[in-house]
Amino acid sequence: MPPAGWCWLGPVLAACGLLAVADGAAEAGGGAGAGAEAACPATLRSTGRCAAGGECAYEVRLPALTVQLPAQWGRLEEVFKEVQNLKETVNSLKKSCQDCKLQADDSRAPGRGGQLSPSPGAPGEAEDGRVRELESEVNKLSADLKDAKEEIDVLHGRLEELSLVNMNNIENYVDSKVANLTSVVNSLDGKCSSKCPSQEHTQSRPVQHLIYKDCSDYYTIGKRSSETYRVTPDPKNSSFEVFCDMETMGGGWTVLQARLDGSTNFTRTWQDYKVGFGNLRREFWLGNDKIHLLTKSKDMILRIDLEDFNGVKLYALYDQFYVANEFLKYRLHIGNYNGTAGDALHFSKHYNHDLKFFTTPDRDNDRYPSGNCGLYYSSGWWFDACLSANLNGRYYHQKYRGVRNGIFWGTWPGISEAHPGGYKSSLKEAKMMIRPKHFKP
Ligand SMILES: [Ca+2]
C-alpha cells in the first residue's frame, strides 16, 4: 500500500513516467537513481523515521515548475499595474470629491436663509461671515438699484413734461428775441444813417442809399411810379425784385401777393411758396423766405385790399405783421386790425390765423388733426383748423359750388350766407402789401 502522501503525488509522478517504487527499492536503487532523476527530476525519499501512529515522513523534491501560459498572460502584469494605478487615482478622486462636498456643504449652509449659526471656532466661520456680509451687500445694492430706478422713472416723466413745455416756449422765445433784435438793429441803423459824422464825411449821400431795404426806401428817394424794384432787406442775403405800389394810401408799399384774373395757379408746393411764383406785374406770391426777410428787417404793417365781382372795394390794415423763418414754418404774427373788410384773420377763438404755421398741400402744419387744410382748400396759407380767410384759394370767375376753396375773406359782407343752389361767391381781386410801421409818406 502506498503511503497516504503518495496519493496526491501520483498524478505528477505518473506524468513524469515514474513508477511507484517500494520503500526498499527506492532506497536500494540509490545508485541507479541518477538515471531516474535525469528522466524525471522529481524525487521521493524517505526520511527513515516513521511515527508511532504508522505514518512515515517522506521528502518529496520537485524541480522548479514552469508553466507555459498563452502570450496574452504576459500583459497581466501591466494590467495589474494599470489596475493599481487606476485604483490609486480613484481613491485620490474619491478623497478630493469628499473634500469638495465638505466645502460645498460649508458654503451652502449659511445660504439656506442664513439660519445656520456657525458654531464658535468652526473652521468655516470666517467664510460664513464673509458670505453673509456679501449677501447683505447684495441686498443693499438691490434695494439701492430699485430706488434709483424709481427715481429715474420720476425724472423721465418730468423730462417729458419739460420737453413739451420747452418746445412751445422755445418758439415764443426765439420769436420775441428776433423781434427785439430787429428793433435794436433798426434803431441803430436809423442812428447811424443820420447821426454818424464820420459816415457823413466819408460817404456821399447816394452811397448811403445804395441799399434799398423795401419800396419805402425808393419812395424816400423820390420814386413815384408803381414798378418793379430791386430790394435788399438783409445785407447778409441776396437782393430780389419786388413790385412797389407807390399810389395806394401814400405809396411806399412792397407787394407780397396779388390776385386779379386767375392767370397764376396758387395750388402749389411748399418749395414754390418758399421761393415765390407767378408774375410780379400780374398775379404772384412773393415767396415766404423773402416775406420773412422783409418783415424781420423792420416793423411792418400789412394792408390787404379786396374787391368783389360787384365792384365793392374794402381793405384791412394790420399794425403788426411778421412772418418767421422756414425753421419756424413761416409762422404768422399779425395784430391790431383796422379797416373796412373786417378782421377775418382773427375771426373768433376757433378761427384765428394769428400764430399759425404755413401749410401747403404737401406740408401739413395746420391745426386740423384729420387732414391737410392746404390739400382740402387747394392753397398755401397760415391755416388754423381750417380757415376764416384764404386769399390763396382757387380763382373763380363766377359763383361756384362744392368745397369753399375760392378766394375767401370770412368777414366780407354776405360771403358766408347760403345762396340758392348751394352756390358760393368768391372775390375778384386781392392784394397784400407791407410798409415800415414808422414810414411817413
Ligand atoms: Ca392737419
UniProtKB/TrEMBL annotation:
<keyword id="KW-0175">Coiled coil</keyword>
<feature type="coiled-coil region">
    <location>
        <begin position="76"/>
        <end position="103"/>
    </location>
</feature>
<dbReference type="GO" id="GO:0072377">
    <property type="term" value="P:blood coagulation, common pathway"/>
</dbReference>
<keyword id="KW-0325">Glycoprotein</keyword>
<feature type="signal peptide">
    <location>
        <begin position="1"/>
        <end position="24"/>
    </location>
</feature>
<dbReference type="GO" id="GO:0050687">
    <property type="term" value="P:negative regulation of defense response to virus"/>
</dbReference>
<dbReference type="InterPro" id="IPR036056">
    <property type="entry name" value="Fibrinogen-like_C"/>
</dbReference>
<dbReference type="GO" id="GO:0034116">
    <property type="term" value="P:positive regulation of heterotypic cell-cell adhesion"/>
</dbReference>
<protein>
    <recommendedName>
        <fullName>Fibroleukin</fullName>
    </recommendedName>
</protein>
<dbReference type="InterPro" id="IPR020837">
    <property type="entry name" value="Fibrinogen_CS"/>
</dbReference>
<keyword id="KW-0964">Secreted</keyword>
<keyword id="KW-1015">Disulfide bond</keyword>
<keyword id="KW-0732">Signal</keyword>
<dbReference type="Pfam" id="PF00147">
    <property type="entry name" value="Fibrinogen_C"/>
</dbReference>
<feature type="region of interest" description="Disordered">
    <location>
        <begin position="104"/>
        <end position="130"/>
    </location>
</feature>
<dbReference type="GO" id="GO:0043381">
    <property type="term" value="P:negative regulation of memory T cell differentiation"/>
</dbReference>
<dbReference type="InterPro" id="IPR002181">
    <property type="entry name" value="Fibrinogen_a/b/g_C_dom"/>
</dbReference>
<dbReference type="GO" id="GO:0002617">
    <property type="term" value="P:negative regulation of macrophage antigen processing and presentation"/>
</dbReference>
<dbReference type="GO" id="GO:0042730">
    <property type="term" value="P:fibrinolysis"/>
</dbReference>
<dbReference type="InterPro" id="IPR014716">
    <property type="entry name" value="Fibrinogen_a/b/g_C_1"/>
</dbReference>
<dbReference type="GO" id="GO:0070527">
    <property type="term" value="P:platelet aggregation"/>
</dbReference>
<dbReference type="GO" id="GO:0005577">
    <property type="term" value="C:fibrinogen complex"/>
</dbReference>
<feature type="coiled-coil region">
    <location>
        <begin position="131"/>
        <end position="165"/>
    </location>
</feature>
<feature type="domain" description="Fibrinogen C-terminal">
    <location>
        <begin position="206"/>
        <end position="438"/>
    </location>
</feature>
<comment type="subunit">
    <text>Homotetramer; disulfide-linked.</text>
</comment>
<dbReference type="GO" id="GO:0030674">
    <property type="term" value="F:protein-macromolecule adaptor activity"/>
</dbReference>
<dbReference type="GO" id="GO:0002291">
    <property type="term" value="P:T cell activation via T cell receptor contact with antigen bound to MHC molecule on antigen presenting cell"/>
</dbReference>
<dbReference type="GO" id="GO:0005201">
    <property type="term" value="F:extracellular matrix structural constituent"/>
</dbReference>
<dbReference type="GO" id="GO:0002605">
    <property type="term" value="P:negative regulation of dendritic cell antigen processing and presentation"/>
</dbReference>
<dbReference type="InterPro" id="IPR037579">
    <property type="entry name" value="FIB_ANG-like"/>
</dbReference>
